[in-house]
Amino acid sequence: MKRRKFIKTTAAGVAAYTIATSPITARSYARIVGANDRIRCAILGCYRRFPGLLAGLAAQKGSVDITYVSDVDARRQKKGALQVKAKMGIAPKQEKDMRIIFAQPDVDAVFHATPDHWHAVGSIMSMQAGKHVYVEKPCSHNPYEDELLMDWQKKTGLVVQMGAQQRSSPESIEIIKDIHDGIIGEAYQATAFYSNRRGRLPKANIIPPPSYLDWDLFQGPAPRTDFIDIVGDYNWHWFWRWGTAETGNNATHELDIGRWALQVTYPQRVYVNAGKYHFKDDAWTLYDPLAATMVFPCDKTIKWDGKSRSGHSTYGAGRGTIIYGSEGSVYVDRNG
Q: How many Cβ atoms are within 10 Å of 293's Cβ, its own excluded?
């Protein structure tokens, strides 16, 4: 099925997501389902983001249970279940097909740590089943899915949080408040940036999927294709079917800081220069670098400077956001 038809079919009905500005706390959990109830959670995806999610839930294990773990890679799913048992004291059930988990009564909230192309679709299906949602960034693979996700949140009233972890940082909260209070005068421009030295991708070879991987479930709502031997772990980010390149990856955090500081929503105009300028003959299919200028009302501007592969440290660091004001400027990154 074409992606749009798939989403319309699985989503018939529609909602917005909300981005929480701090981690979901035990108190807010209690407000959701009642102060005397334990929150039963499922984690989808047992790889890169799994340890962080598990640590956060384990810190609240007096009020939280992890009832399911899920991964299309059987090895990772088994490892994830063992990690949950070690942290929580009870082994979760294992189920590679998230759709089966959504139908279970012993799940109140679903944590989505899957590849980008599953984020909106999995979140919508969770809400259709009456489950609260935490979804890693980006919350969708494309803007159309954002609209569906937002409409479903409004329709159901369920709690939906996208992982914008830098918003939870005390340093970020403090400096943004100072900017809003006028510490640098009138803030008028932000430059968000990311630089890395992601190298040449190996040659992509079409081979049979490994026995431990459910390739059909991995693809989910994406257009079907043959399995290639370099797609696993992280490289799916650089293919249009599954990823969103650096703009949907790390830019989500840095651009968020810029928008937060300038107190803007949607741009009136966007100018972009992007292309595949490095290692032109390798398997990477998405753009890099990408430079964008977003012009907002009241003459406010945000610039994005994303360079995943050139490695040039233009601003003296690998990532961050600079906010310019009429009386000064602020540099903020994950170190404070």
A: 17
